[in-house]
Amino acid sequence: MDDGNAKLLNVDGLVTGYGKKQVVNGVGLDVEPGEIVALIGHNGAGKSTLLKAIFGLLPVWEGSVFLDGKQLESPTPRELLRFGVAFVPQGNRVFTDLSVRENLEMGGVTLRDKRELNEGIERVFTLFPAIKPRLRQRAGTLSGGEKQMLALANALVLNPRVLLLDEPSLGLAPPLVSEALGRIREIAEDKRVAVLIVEQKVREVLRIAQRVYVLRNGLVSFSGLSESLTDEATLREVYL
Amino acid sequence: MQLTLNVLVAASTLALMAVGFGLIFSTTRFFHFAHAVVYTGAAYLTYCGSVQLGLPLVIAVLLGVAGGVCLGGLMEVGLYRPMRGRSASALTLLIASLGTYVVLQNLVSMTWGDDVRMLQSSTVREGIEILGGRITPTSVLAIAVCVALLAVVTLVLRRTGLGRAMRAVADDAELARIRGIRADRVILATFAIGSALAAVAGILVALDVNMRPTMGMNALMLAIVAVIIGGVSSIGGIALGSLFLAAAQQVAIWQLGSQWQDAVAFAILLVFLLARPQGLFGKPLRKVAV
Hints:
Order of helices and strands of chain A: EEEHEEHEHHHEHEHEEH
Number of domains of chain B: 1
Helix content of chain A: 25-40%
Oligomer: heterodimer
Number of domains of chain A: 1
Strand content of chain A: 25-35%
CATH architecture of chain A: 3-Layer(aba) Sandwich
Number of helices of chain A: 8
Number of strands of chain B: 2
CATH topology of chain A: Rossmann fold
Order of helices and strands of chain B: HHHHEEHHHHHHH
Number of helices of chain B: 11
Largest interface: A-B, 24 and 22 residues
Radius of gyration of chain B: 19 Å
Shape of chain B: globular
Helix content of chain B: over 70%
Distance between the termini of chain B: 52 Å
Distance between the termini of chain A: 35 Å
Largest sheet of chain A: 6 strands, mixed
């Protein structure tokens, strides 16, 4: 894949699934720095499964994942984190029994250098000042919106180059949804992070994404610029 | 006073067993019944080293603890980990664990026989007198070791990176992997620590009283009751649960006779399961967050 203009994240012909059940049937996609790419589709289309396989949480049966043009042999989350890929799973999960500070430390647990970790945590405070007064609080006592912030903040401690987000709006009150998505856009633009985002709130995510892939039955059924889907009729056609 | 001393002695080894079991349960979410044979095995290994091979007692004890840690670690690496890899349910793991227990307990029986064995063959000792009660030096040692080990484990959990990782895996194992924690290693460390506690408990009981091949399961059953009373997730809770259970049992022995001690323990278990299943200090066991 050394074609000179390698994408930051490139997925080629990826096949994966759970146990013996194949869910993703050969998907290719790519994301570049500073770009937000939306992955949409119905329940069971394979969006979350695809993200998990990219991040090494599920085995890749066929196909490959390239980072900066380099193929990953059998990716593990640890390896991807070291490269600068962070994953925020569905449900804004945080370690509920750990303090907010410990959660952030876990976000940078793959960093070998303690100073880097502290810098990472400080950097997160500038993005999410609301977190700072809550450091000693148990993360389980945070509100839904605060948990979402912490989940995202955790992934940013590493200063990632690629961010994989699985439905960050899930369970958020409507006013918080656009706030969260707006923040994701800021992160992508300011830090030149490549963002691959799975979202059910299609209209909202199309507003922040430059490009979009529609997944159906584990295959890409449409891919193109977000603008091409902003009018109702086309969206209905490719999505329904 | 004698009653208080008896309670403390019984509670200390019980708490070691219970905390070990609780640590393993909270990180892996299944009932590690073979924990019982770590307790028994460590006692018999010490017996083998000290009485049969004639090694100094300290060396034999270290051998017993090391053996217990290896045994627990081997079960995790050789049995539970491959089963988890095939996404075995908690029930499957429980049954495998029970099977392992039966096999290994019989192995102990075959090797050393079913008779009661003693580590210290000396005649019944007087014991020292403290505030009107009598206590053997070994019992004093047991209490001291228990307090020290529980303090160490608490510090490890609260203050070290390993402890934080253990709590994270117990909280949400998949999220821990997503953060880059090698969960398998953390679980192995948990088994090692838990097994060390069980081994020490088994050896202390063997030193103070005696040993028989079934000692582990009796101890484990009580430990499980103590864990349920105390609430799975806190060491302090489990320690208090052990204290409470030991107190209830000693009172039962005193008032009703020793044949009632287990009946009382399980009556308490039933009361807790019906009235307060999360334990005195625990939180309700969560399901995976949606």
